[in-house]
Write a structure and sequence with these properties.
four-stranded mixed sheet; 114 residues; 18% strand; 5 helices
Length: 114
Amino acid sequence: MNSVGQRACFRAVSLKLKLSTSFFLQVLGIVQNMSFFQCPKCKHETYIFGAEGAKELAAKLELDVLGDIPLHMNIREMSDKGQPIVISHPDSPEANAYLRLSAEVMKKLPGSPR
């Protein structure tokens, strides 16, 4: 499941969880999308949608937070071009967010080494 940190999204995520489990889909955890915006000039991080919302939701739903994906221009630009950020900018903090997320997903898959 993915969510932004905004509490207004909690109901939608809860409904998606119910729908997923009704189809016997395993939900691995929550991904907080657009977790923060970092100013390209001063590097200050702003939590536009709130900082702890996904963590609160995950605790309520008894799920883990698998990762946080920032709201970043490089992600949007490379996505529009069909170029994954992990390939176009592999050493960037944005790419590292996706790599950390994929590592957490791998840990949750059956038969995966812990």
